[in-house]
Structures are given as structure tokens and as C-alpha cells.
Design brief:
The structure is a homodimer of 152-residue chains.
Chain A lengths: L12 H7 L6 H12 L6 E2 H10 L6 H13 L3 E5 L5 E5 L10 E5 L5 E4 L5 H11 L2 E12 L6
Parallel strand pairs in A: 4-6
Antiparallel strand pairs in A: 1-3, 2-3, 4-5
Helix pairs in contact in A: 2-3, 2-4, 3-4
The structure holds a DNA duplex (25 and 25 nucleotides).
Chain lengths: 152, 152
DNA sequence: TTATTTGCAAAGTCTTTGCAAGCAG
DNA sequence: CTGCTTGCAAAGACTTTGCAAATAA
């Protein structure tokens, strides 16, 4: 079930960009690379990407990072998530938007975000679609509470 | 089922404030009044509350509105919601946090936010709690898609 | 070559904060 | 009275934008 996630690969970037008349640049390559290297449940903000790039001696402008995570999101390569902590975060997209992928468990104490790799909302979506005449394309679910380490 | 929502009343404000050593002020009274008058599925941002107050000739500082919606949220009188449109929104709390109230359907075209007055997530929460050792206190669910008027 | 992209700095938006003056209890 | 509140303006945090210089195709 969690094997349904197939993430975007670096070698496909040039092609995907070309499809939309965008150019391949070192900035775009390295930004995507950061996400590939951090696909283990991390959710990076633009600034965090910028910092991780600097650690690798890539000193791109922060605005460039902002522009390109947005671009990669529009290409479906990244997903943009809002955990309510005042900044947008991004992660490698699970690819198929039909496979709703995972939920996020947000610890109210340590602020950790845990991924839960299953999705049970198909039935719920069906009921809501029928009752409300709303065509659901996607959903975003956050559970708030205390993680294993923070619960009393 | 949707009768489980019992909203906060204006006459209880003074008492609730006093419990926490806060004072009753005209600003607080009128801000809550705005939410009571707009409890029909509206989700107001601080600025919208400020505007609605001005329409009634209450010219309070915007910072005061910000401070007080935050205060009313901390008292459990309002709920703070993030629809990802770049500003926080508030609505009268459904009261009992155990009664998870409702979900939000967000139309990707007209940006309308529709409330869906039922909650099916108890089973999902139970499964997640068991599998992940995460103690869930609350959840926030958004469904994205097209509303009745915007679907083709 | 030439349209895209970058980098920088400036501007924008929402929200918070400092502080003196005002007010509720 | 006395400490909580307000209002204003300034500061903060994150993000976007304008524009000239650089660059991918």
C-alpha cells in the first residue's frame, strides 16, 4: 500500500522542464537534488532548502529557491504543504494524485511532524461527494495531538 | 448530528474572561458579537472582523482585533483555521473538542469554502492511534475540488 | 541569438510587539 | 488605584516582484 509512492527522479527533470518550455539550470537540478536527498519524511521550507544548498556550497539566491520550489510544485514534482507554522513546506510528490498517499500527525508539544503512510479516506470522500455534490480531487488531513515521546 | 454544535453566547463572555483574569471590554464584546452575527458558515480573518466592526462604526485598532481573536481562541470560544489563503481565519468554536464537528470543502476555482456538517474520522483516528502510538486530540481536514457550480 | 532565468534589493502581506495613554474592576 | 487593554506606529517573518546581468538552448 505504501509502495504506491514513486518519487520523481533527477534524470527526468530536464525532460519534464522541456515539456513546459522551461530550461534546465544548475539551480533547478540542485534544488531537486536536495529533496531527493531528504525524502525520508522531511518537509522542507524554502529557507531550509536554501540552507541545505549552502551547506553544499551552492549559494543561490533565496528568491531563486522560492521561484523554483513553486515551479516544481506546478510541475507536480513537489507537493506544497501548510502545517500552520507560518511557512510553506514542500516534499517530493507521491506522483499519482489519485493515490492520496499519507497523513500528517503533528505533535502539539515538540512540533514534530510524523507521516502516517496510509489513507483511509476513500469511503469518506465518496459519502461527501454524494451528499454535497462536490467533486473531490484531493484532500489534506492533519491530526493534532501528542507523539509517543510527548504523551504523558 | 449537526445539533451537537452549541456555540458560545455573548452573555457568557464576561464570566469566561473573569475565569482567566481577563477584563470585559467593549472591544471584546463587539468582536465576539461579529462572530455571533456571522456564524452561518463564515470564516472571518482578523481584517474582515475589523472591516465588519467599522461598518458598525466601531473603529478599533487592527492590532486589538488580532490580539482578541487570539485571546478568544485561547479561551476555546473561537477556532482558528488555516485555509491556505495566506491569512488565518476564525469561527465560533463548536464547543466540545471531542465532537469534531465538520470538514471543509474548498473549491479550487471559485475559492468558496463549504462546510460539511459531519465527521467520519473516529474510526480512522482509532486505527492511527493504535498503529502509530500517537495520541490524537483533534484533526483538521480539507477536501479540495470543484463545487457544484464550478464542476463541468 | 534570444527568451528564460538568476540575483539582489525593494516592496508586499499578514501578524506581532513596544510603549504611553486609557480604562475596567 | 493598579494592572490589564488599547491604539498607534514600528518591527518582524515570510514571500513576491522589478530589473539588469547572466545563461541555456
Amino acid at each position: 500500500m505504501s509502495e504506491t509512492r514513486q518519487l520523481f527522479k533527477l534524470q527526468d527533470l530536464r525532460g519534464r522542464l522541456a515539456e513546459h518550455n522551461y530550461k534546465m539550470t544548475p539551480q533547478r537540478k540542485e534544488i531537486l537534488q536536495i529533496f531527493i536527498e531528504n525524502c525520508d519524511g522531511r518537509h522542507l521550507s524554502a529557507e531550509e532548502v536554501h540552507d541545505l544548498l549552502r551547506e553544499k556550497d551552492f549559494d543561490f539566491g533565496l528568491a531563486t529557491v522560492y521561484r523554483n520550489v513553486e515551479l516544481l510544485t506546478s510541475l507536480g514534482i513537489l507537493d506544497k504543504i501548510d502545517f500552520g507554522d507560518g511557512r510553506m513546506r514542500y516534499e517530493l510528490s507521491s506522483g499519482n494524485p489519485q493515490i492520496h498517499q499519507h497523513h500528517h500527525l503533528i505533535c502539539l508539544k515538540c512540533k514534530k511532524v510524523i507521516e502516517f503512510e496510509e489513507d483511509f479516506l476513500d469511503d469518506v470522500e465518496k459519502i461527501i461527494s454524494e451528499k454535497s455534490e462536490f467533486q473531490i480531487l484531493n484532500h489534506e488531513v492533519k491530526f493534532f495531538g501528542y507523539c509517543k515521546d510527548c504523551r504523558e
